[in-house]
Amino acid sequence: MKILYVASEALPYASTGGLADVLGSLPIAVKRSLGDEGDVRVVIPMYPSVKEKFFDQMKFECETTVRLSWRSQYCGIWSTVREGVTYYFIDNEYYFKRPALYGSFDDGERFAFFGKAVLELMSTMQFFPDILHANDWQTAPAVIYLKRKFGLAPGYENIRVLYTIHNIEYQGVYDFSILGDVFELAEWDRSIVEYNGAINLTKGALMCADRISTVSPRYASEIMTEYYSAGLHHVLHACSHKLSGIINGIDTEYYNCATDPEIAAVFTKDDLSGKVKDKMDLQAVCGFEPDPDVPLIVMISRLATHKGFDLIRHVIEEFLNRNHVQVALLGTGERDMEGFFADLGHRYPGKFCAKLEYNKALSKKFYAGADMFLMPSKSEPCGLAQMIASQYGTVPVVRETGGLFDTIHAYNQYTGEGNGFSFTNYNAHEMMHVLESAVALYNDKEKWNALVKNVMDVDFSWNASAEKYLQLYTGMREQ
Ligand code: GLC
């Protein structure tokens, strides 16, 4: 089976969030499972960071010209092979040599170019996949162009498309005035991309894809409701016959507390002594008292409202004042949130610490050194952090939504079952009370250690989910 994954980011090359983790690990898991039967490739843009760090591993494949509306643009194709998977990089400095991956005024044009370049790559590299697996709105143009422009051309006619929603909040919405000029779409394509009086690229991809998936079964049902759909529930209802949810896995070799070179001390679920050293290390990083017995709670997240930061903001001072705890936050995001947490750190030194940065190496220290991991998302398509935390014996405290609902099962004080703590309603005090029951259990060392063991026992590797994707791909081929 030939599979081409298309995305705007993939680890270790370029990353702003969980999407990159998935594109750095799912294709490899699928290739592993297919063995010689599989030809698995991935394509992402060539960002400056990729050129700086990985240039010496790259092979120049060729250069072509990509036409988009009246534009003719240079397109270089570079490649590298990682664990049997070929990663392609689309090079065009005009579009991709920018200070950040996203957030430019012309993101629509940048990813329209990328989409067109991906389809051209298939013929230049003579690689026509059975499955084109596209991920999030930046790849929606590739899906739309395949079905509206390339579909009947030789080589393209049998490609089946899976479009995966990693987060429905980001849709790629643009004014109709650029339908032809930028997106090279004709009037008769209008109804495909039109939504609420504008061009909505996600809607276009949902209409065109053969199958749609999202990254947890729970989120697949949630996005059919107005509360979670960011406006697209009508479209998703119309497409429900082709929608399913498959939970993400994580790279359990990279996130492995028994071998991780980036943490102060390694440990296993049978010998947690190294975790105590990691805790002291994290306490030093945060400027906290080195105390193995005080519950240390961390959050690692983009500081966005839908990640639940308004709940935290509402009760954090009350919580800090009522409990003997240490709380640390790692992440960047919305300006006012950053300001609030920076200020809180100054007002509660020794109790609250905000590290306002996106730092993978530091995140490892947070995962390994903490006792509890707080993730009170308002919506969470899958969430990887709760799984990564679990790998490091850090007990997740989550809101029951999306992938958090599917992966974390609340601790049952009578049976001792469960792998974390959870609350149902998006309510700040409900969150605080659950957090306080976690803190209370923490003081009962025997029960706490049994819970930590449960948490570390769950298999969050790609094994099961890669098989589910393979079943989906196989079904699509036979369609
Ligand atoms: C997005 C979602 C997150 C998910 C990730 C990978 O970042 O917000 O929940 O885990 O994509 O699918």
Mean pLDDT: 97
Q: What is the fold named in CATH at topology level of the largest domain?
A: Rossmann fold
Give the strand line-up of the largest sheet: 3-4-5-2-1-6-7-11-12
Strand content: 15-25%
Cα-to-Cα separation, first versus last residue: 15 Å
By DSSP, the count of extended strands is 18
Number of domains: 2
Q: Major beta sheet, specifics?
A: 9 strands, mixed
CATH structural architecture of the largest domain: 3-Layer(aba) Sandwich
Low-confidence blocks of residues:
none
Q: Shape from CA axes?
A: globular
What is the overall number of helices? Answer: 19
> Which secondary-structure class do the elements indicate?
alpha/beta
CATH top level assignment of the largest domain: Alpha Beta
Properties at a glance:
Rossmann fold, 2 domains, 19 helices, alpha/beta, nine-stranded mixed sheet, 19% strand, 479 residues, binds alpha-D-glucopyranose
Would you give an account of this structure?
The protein has two domains: 2-249 and 463-477, 3-Layer(aba) Sandwich (Rossmann fold); 273-460, Rossmann fold (3-Layer(aba) Sandwich), CATH 3.40.50.2000. Helix content is 40%, strand content 19%. α5 crosses α7 and α11 (273-286) packs across α14. The longest helix is centred in the N-terminal third of the chain and has 18 residues, at 107-124. It is globular, with a radius of gyration of 23 Å. The protein has 479 residues and is an alpha/beta fold. The structure holds alpha-D-glucopyranose. Alpha-D-glucopyranose (GLC) is lined by residues 17-19, 22, 166-167, 215, 248, 380-384, 403.
